[in-house]
Amino acid sequence: MEYLPIIQTALDEIDRRITEDIQADDLARMANYSNDHFRRLFQNLTKMPLMNYITRRKLEFALYDISQGKKIINVAMEYGFETHAGFTKAFKKQFGYPPSLYRLHITPSPPVRVIARNPQLKGGNKMNYQVEIKEIAPFSIVGYASRHRMSGVKSIAQLPPGFYDIINLDYAAELTALYQIYNQYPHCEVMLCLDVDDEEGSFTYMMGVGVAEAEYATPLRPGTYRHAIPGGLYAVFTTPLSNNDNQTAILTATWKYILEEWLPASEYKYDDSRTGYEYHDERAHDDWRTDGMCCTEIRIPICKR
After folding, report:
1. Are the C-beta atoms of 239 and 251 separated by less than 8 Å?
2. Residue among 28, 31, 90 nearest 56 (CA)
3. 3-state SS class at 176
4. How many whole angstroms separate alpha carbon 114 and alpha carbon 111?
5. How far apart are CA 145 and CA 279, in angstroms?
6. Does domain 4-105 have CATH number 3.40.50.720?
7. What is the pLDDT of residues 194-211, one digit of tens each?
8. Bond prior to 161 in cis (omega within 30° of 0)
9. How many CB atoms lie within 10 A of CB 297?
10. Cβ proximity of 288 and 265 under 8 Å
11. In 10 A of CB 1, how many CB atoms?
12. Domain ranges, ordered by start, for the chain
């Protein structure tokens, strides 16, 4: 395509001026094309309207800056969003979920240079994810909660030894004891994040076991909490089978697929009136029942865009 070098120049110019008020006229003039013709060429190649691409790219750069500890309001204004709420609204419109969800589950890397041959190429995720859209009934969990700062915890599935692994190690015996008390609900452990504070950069992480309605009156053990999981429509992602040693890495990869590929391209958006969570049932235990292999469900609350 003879216009590839022209579009590549435009892509690089957008990155170079990423914090400026970039207008289509400026880029078209640089390419010596009319505004309408340049916009058509750009969209033919990127499969995205020019101004949408610019907004998306600004959000990618801004999200990385926020992940490095900069205040959201300062970053939002630097990239042309007048308020924290305006930044969040633009992010949700572009990707289908709030920026706090990405910050919790993915450790962002600096945005890489976009190549004009295929700007939307994600790197070729080869894992096969089983995805179901289904209604899930409400239920409750009882377990342990702890407060954390995002500046110190970049993501739930951190590099080894892993945030989940640390908490599981701390509470393994306690969770086993909870199963002795709450044994009427199907065997499961649930992990989720609550009370996310973007400005403070903190969240509550909770791990608990499923509780049947008949067990609600059971007195809570010291240090435990009960939390209601709302029902409704969920996208349920089942991770590929693997041995237990690889589960943290696979959970991280699955969240990355959900947030960077599936949700932005989906007809659904994240319903942030509810909370997504990881659901570990008998399949999450790599013992004789699963021939040494295990998998986990990630349940994402969704609604139509």
Report:
1. yes
2. 90
3. helix
4. 9
5. 16
6. no
7. 888 877 778 888 999 999
8. yes
9. 21
10. no
11. 11
12. 4-105, 130-304
The pLDDT confidence band at residue 162, using thresholds 50, 70 and 90, is very low
**Which residues does residue 237 pair with via DSSP β-bridges, in sequence order?**
131, 298
Architecture label for domain 130-304:
Alpha-Beta Barrel (3.20)
Asked if residue 236 lies in contact with residue 134, where contact means CB atoms within 8 angstroms, the answer is yes
Cα–Cα dist 189/207, whole Å: 7
- Look up residue 56 and give its DSSP letter: H
Average pLDDT over residues 147-169: 51
The pTM score is 0.83
Cα dihedral sign, 168-169-171-175: positive
Identity at 233, one-letter amino acid code: L
How far apart are alpha carbons 234 and 229 in whole angstroms? 12
Give CA–CA dist 62/56, Å, rounded: 10
- Interacting residues of 167 by C-beta distance below 8 A, sequence separation 6+: 144, 146, 205, 207
User: What is the residue type of 83?
Assistant: T
Locate 208 and state its tokens.
């608990």
pLDDT at 168: 55
Q: What is the largest CA-CA distance in the chain?
A: 74
Is it the case that residue 154 has pLDDT exceeding 50? no
Alpha carbon 190 to chain centroid, angstroms: 17
SS3 292: coil
Average pLDDT of the segment spanning 286-300: 76
The per-residue pLDDT for range 20-34, each reduced to its tens digit, is 999 999 999 999 999
Two structure tokens written together for 191: 């992990």
Asked if the model's pLDDT at residue 165 lies above 80, the reply is: no
- Amino acid found at 67: S
**Cα(225)–Cα(264) distance, integer angstroms:** 34
Q: Quick one: which of 150, 147, 141, 149 has its CA closest to 280?
A: 141
The token pair at 163 is: 């945030």
